[in-house]
């Protein structure tokens, strides 16, 4: 950021009119637009240079590769500037925050909404890694967004009993209710919380042992655990000894 408070920003947008409009709004708001990318390959090549900018405003769907595909292809090998997604598709917000997006703006961008985003960036928009591990808020290491009706809630991991994958969607169970997350597999959930203790009690269920309220043995060397009122989970024969060990049994 320049001493006068101007932000150095870039934008990735394949639609010329949308790119021109956002560029004008950014300049009027005191930003220097130092790069404009119009497709996925150009965005990937530019990110490989690890550019010195305060923010990258990017669309999701572009020729050659979507922004999510670009991020996935880079695989955490380069450092990203703070990301602000600008799109007409509200359904991708969870995936955006999963890659540590600073904000998620819907087209057409409202000037007042953009002003709030820029204020946030000036107050401390920091570089993120592709996996969102660097510069994460220290006070909220285990919070994550989940879909709730037409909006989102932010769940604390300590209130989650288990994660369940159904048809490539990971659901978080918290206080007897399930919430849809942006993760698609249990491996993604485990990677998101490297310091957490989890155990796979079935191929599609990842349990947080601290959430277990009761355990009883069932036929065949298996077990059944209670994680909430009327909510019991079956533990596979293979996982039962490990779970008992974690529970101090």
TrEMBL record:
Record Pfam families: LytTR (PF04397), Response_reg (PF00072)
Gene Ontology, cellular component aspect: cytosol; protein-DNA complex
Alphabetized UniProt keyword annotations: DNA-binding, Phosphoprotein
Domain of life of the source: Bacteria
InterPro entries in alphabetical order: CheY-like_superfamily, LytTR_DNA-bd_dom, Sig_transdc_resp-reg_receiver, WalR-like
SUPFAM superfamilies in the cross-refs: CheY-like (SSF52172)
Residues modified as 4-aspartylphosphate: 59
Response regulatory domain span: 8-122
Keyword check for Transport: no
Organism per entry: Mesoterricola silvestris
Protein name: DNA-binding response regulator
A GO molecular-function annotation: transcription cis-regulatory region binding
GO biological process, one term: regulation of DNA-templated transcription
PROSITE patterns reported for this sequence: RESPONSE_REGULATORY
